Amino acid sequence: MARPFPRPHRFDVVLAAAGLLGGLLVWGLGLATRPAGEPTVLLDGRWWVLPPLVVTASCELLRRTAPRTALLVATAALILDTLTRGSLVTLLMFTDVLYACVLYGPPASARRVPRITGLLTVAATVVPYALWRVPEALLIGVLTGVVAFAPASTGLIVRNHRDAALSARLRAEQTALLAEVDRSQAVVAERARMARELHDMVANHLSAIAIHSTAALSLDDPRTSKESLAVIRENSVQGLAEMRRLIGILREGSGDHEPAAAPTLDGLGALVDGARANGLDVTLDTGSPPAPGDADGSGPEVPTPVGLAAYRIVQESLTNALKHASPGPVTVTLARRDGVLDVRVSSPYGHRDGPRAPGSGAGLVGMRERAALLGGTFAAGPEDDRWTVRAALPVDGPEPP
């Protein structure tokens, strides 16, 4: 199937029509670039001026869609025009076709046409002067430069500016796109971080509240109900305080501008005491000698991000043990060896009698994400009839993102 001829641009149609009408007006007035009877006029007839004019005006229709073809045909028309009395309008339209070929043509034409016209200008200046040895011969080179080299160089300058503007716009769009991608990734990462913090800060309190409220409702024992209500009140107060601190950090102008202190391994003793108050039989082994007045001791010295991740992993593991573990001892072990902090929480594995709190599975996801952000490993599953959570957190690795 033949390729359809491209439709000319509207401005090119107007330009071609204006050039043709202007050339006909000049022809009708009898104006020409050379007088009749001049020896260089080989086609000395008034009507010979019109064919080059019509052909050049037709080339204006192709100045954008087929610029190289238009330049070749217009060059042939200009050569024919030099054999006649000549038309100034034909000459002007040729300069526009030459300019359009450099501006709208392929890159190869944009590079070659200015070079070729520059060489022609130099040749048209040197050769006539060398042959005739008169200053007037230099005017041929000046005329050639005005007709050929000036439009070509102007088109090259405009094209370079246009390409530079296009490149700048593309870079700006690419920068804006990358900024939007970075913003989206930052929002997703921040939402994931806040989800982990919210889950770790509140889930253990809500789990204790759910279990003890179920026990208070299911057991007809005033003493047990009173103890359950005390545990419920303590966990609700602590959970509410942590929620307020979290909301104060997120909401601007809330009046709470002090960031909540990030928990460290030094707070594991208090965390274990809270788990015991909720009914877990927990034993903590940090591999460190107990501090005065602290029966559990403090954790090993580690960077703050590692300590926070280890604290949250232990916290979530105790929460899961409170919700799902069978009655029995729960052991928490922390040890630092070979630049890695090993965290291990083991709880009874099996069917649990009595009230249970539902789980969403977000806890395991959050613990795995915390270990991955530090470049560590995480695993959880049954091991020797016990449910074991294991995490290896590099102590000397790079700071988390």
How does this structure look, described?
The protein is of the alpha+beta class and 401 residues long. The chain has 2 domains: 10-176, no CATH class; 266-401, 2-Layer Sandwich (Heat Shock Protein 90). Helix content is 60%, strand content 10%. It has 10 helices and 5 strands. A 5-stranded mixed sheet has the order 1-2-3-5-4, covered by helices on one side. The radius of gyration is 44 Å and the shape is rod-shaped. Mean pLDDT is 83; it is low at 253-257 and 289-297.
What is the topological layout?
Elements (H helix, E strand, L loop, with lengths): L9 H19 L21 H11 L6 H16 L5 H17 L2 H26 L5 H81 L3 H29 L17 H10 L3 E5 L18 H21 L4 E9 L2 E9 L13 H12 L3 E7 L2 E9 L7
Parallel strand pairs: 1-2
Antiparallel strand pairs: 2-3, 3-5, 4-5
- Our count of helices gives 10
User: How would you characterize the largest beta sheet?
Assistant: 5 strands, mixed
Q: Termini, distance in Å? A: 59 Å
Q: Which strand order spans the largest sheet, edge to edge or round the barrel?
A: 1-2-3-5-4
Give the ordered list of helices and strands: HHHHHHHHEHEEHEE
Please tell me the total number of domains. 2
Q: What is the helix content?
A: 55-70%
Strand content: 5-15%
Q: Would you report the number of β strands? A: 5
Shape: rod-shaped
Mean pLDDT: 83
Class of secondary structure makeup: alpha+beta
The radius of gyration over CA amounts to 44 Å
Unreliable residue runs: 253-257, 289-297
